[in-house]
């Protein structure tokens, strides 16, 4: 096992190729330990060089609704009446602080995602 930091794209590609070879190694073996460490190194490199931005607040709500098998009408009472829910999901109105608090509590969406700015549609 010869591990080293991933410092550039070539190192990254080599690490991915090696991980592919040892991916199914048994836990608590040399190759299993190597695969685990290599995964952490790859994850660190990807987080630094290929960051993924969180979805905007409305997309986050829609994603969570899909995960929970919710429909638009299920948000009535959480963020307001039927028309307010429609205005929010159709990007006609912005989320309020109270709506954000309630969405965080009810749908377990982080407030740090919900407070991000997003484009309103006219």
Which secondary structure elements does this structure contain, and how are they paired or packed?
Elements: H1 9-22, H2 30-49, H3 57-67, H4 82-89, H5 97-107, H6 111-114
Helix pairs in contact: 1-2
What keyword list fits this structure?
single chain, 122 residues, 2 domains, 56% helix, 434 Repressor (Amino-terminal Domain), mainly alpha
Roughly how many Å apart are the termini? Answer: 58 Å
Counted by DSSP, the helix tally is 6
What is the architecture of the largest domain at the second tier of CATH? Answer: Orthogonal Bundle
Largest sheet: none
Q: Residue share in helices?
A: 55-70%
**Gross morphology:** elongated
CATH homologous superfamily designation of the largest domain: lambda repressor-like DNA-binding domains
In total, how many domains does the architecture comprise? 2
Coarse structural class: mainly alpha
Series of secondary-structure elements, N-terminal to C-terminal: HHHHHH
| Approximate strand percentage | under 5%
Could you name the CATH class of the largest domain?
Mainly Alpha
Q: Overall mean pLDDT score?
A: 94
